[in-house]
Structures are given as structure tokens and as C-alpha cells.
Design goal:
GO terms for molecular function: tRNA 2-(methylsulfanyl)-N(6)-isopentenyladenosine(37) hydroxylase activity. InterPro entries: Ferritin-like, Ferritin-like_SF, tRNA-Hydrxlase_MiaE. This is tRNA-(Ms[2]io[6]A)-hydroxylase. This protein is an all-alpha fold and about 200 residues long. It has a single domain, classed as Ferritin. About 75% of the residues lie in helices and about 0% in strands. The protein has a two-stranded parallel ribbon with strand order 1-2. α1 packs across α6, α4 packs antiparallel against α7 and α6 runs antiparallel to α7. The protein is globular, with a radius of gyration of 16 Å. The chain starts with a helix and ends with a strand.
């Protein structure tokens, strides 16, 4: 799965400098991770609402919503156990940067949204794998356990993109989004977040 995901991401692995920063900023890492799980569920709910007549999409997004909310609850429990109280954080540039690529009209917007969703899930999976070996036993085990579900979410989004979109357009969209993903995670970033770039 990880080889497949790294190939999908164009071979651009998370920079070691980000991993080093994450290990020093574990409170921020968990705070942002919790928010991202909620946002992932929220995005899936929005997709369902807009495409209720697409049963394959509804089935995958319904399962994804449930899983992401469970993950949010799990992160919250870990945080509270470590004395970390939930608080608001500003959003990272990553998801916003990818969503700038969305075309305004359907069906192209659905294709773009699904491909962006695949990249967010794939990048999350790759970062869990990069972090897990360096974390304490509890958090390392938790992040390793998330690899399967995040990988399934990436595949689900991509399958839906090819189901509802034209193959050539989906292929072109993957290349376009990959270029932006690679740029955002490999260039200097002024704030640390789960999907941030190289620490400035």
C-alpha cells in the first residue's frame, strides 16, 4: 500500500525536516490532526449532500464519515490523556492550496474534488508512516493503525473519480494536483501543521 501511495504522490516523500519538527511539536500535531479528522468527515458529508443520486459515492462517503469521526474521538482521547485541551488552530495552506485547483462547473468540479480528496488521504497516510517509527509506543501504534483506513479512503476517492469522470481528464487532474501537492510539502512554510511544508 505505501509503495502504491508514494507512486501516486509522484515519489515525493515527506521531508525529514518536517518529521524532525513534528517530533518537537507533538501537541500541535495532535491538535491539527483532530481538526483534520473532523474536516475530512465534513467534506464527505458535503459531497453526499450534493450527490445523493450517486449511490456508489454515498456508500463510500457514508463509511468514510463514520470512520473519520471515530478517529477524531480517538485523537481527542489521546490528547486529553496527555493533558492537551482542544483549541482552535488556523488552517494550513495545504488543503486550501489544493482546493484552489477546483474547476467551477460540474462534472469537472466533482472530478477535481475527488482527486483532491485522494491526495489529502494519500499524503496523510504517507505522513503517518513517516512518523510512526519515531513516536512513543501509544502514538506510534495508533498512527500505524490508521494506515489501512487512510489508504482505503485514498483508493475510494480515486475509484469514484474514475467512475464518474472521463479517464483522460482524471489522469490529467492527478498530474495537476500532484504538482501542487509536491510543491506545498517541499517548500518552506512559516507555520507547522500536519500537512505543512518544510519548516521555515
Amino acid at each position: 500500500m505505501l509503495d502504491e501511495i508514494l507512486e501516486f504522490l509522484g515519489g515525493q516523500a515527506t521531508p525529514a525536516a518536517w518529521v524532525d519538527e513534528a517530533l518537537q511539536q507533538q501537541e500541535l500535531l495532535l491538535l491539527d490532526h483532530r481538526i483534520l479528522e473532523y474536516k475530512a468527515a465534513q467534506t464527505a458529508m458535503t459531497l453526499m449532500g450534493r450527490h445523493l443520486m450517486r449511490p456508489e459515492l454515498v456508500a463510500k462517503m457514508s463509511r468514510l464519515v463514520r470512520e473519520e469521526l471515530v478517529h477524531m474521538e480517538q485523537v481527542t482521547r489521546i490528547m486529553l490523556k496527555r493533558g492537551i485541551q482542544p483549541r482552535a488552530l488556523s488552517a494550513s495552506r495545504y488543503a486550501a492550496g489544493l482546493r484552489e485547483l477546483l474547476r467551477p462547473n460540474e462534472p469537472q468540479r466533482l472530478t477535481d474534488t475527488l482527486v483532491v480528496g485522494a491526495f489529502i488521504e494519500a499524503r496523510s497516510c504517507e505522513r503517518f508512516a513517516a512518523l510512526a517509527p519515531h513516536l512513543d509506543e501509544e502514538l506510534g501504534r495508533f498512527y500505524t493503525g490508521l494506515l489501512e483506513s487512510e489508504g482505503r479512503h485514498y483508493r475510494g476517492y480515486l475509484q469514484l473519480a474514475y467512475l464518474y469522470g472521463e479517464r483522460e481528464d482524471v489522469d490529467a487532474t492527478v498530474l495537476r494536483v500532484r504538482e501542487t501537492d509536491n510543491h506545498l510539502i517541499a517548500t518552506p512554510d512559516s507555520q507547522f501543521r500536519f500537512h505543512s511544508g518544510v519548516p521555515a
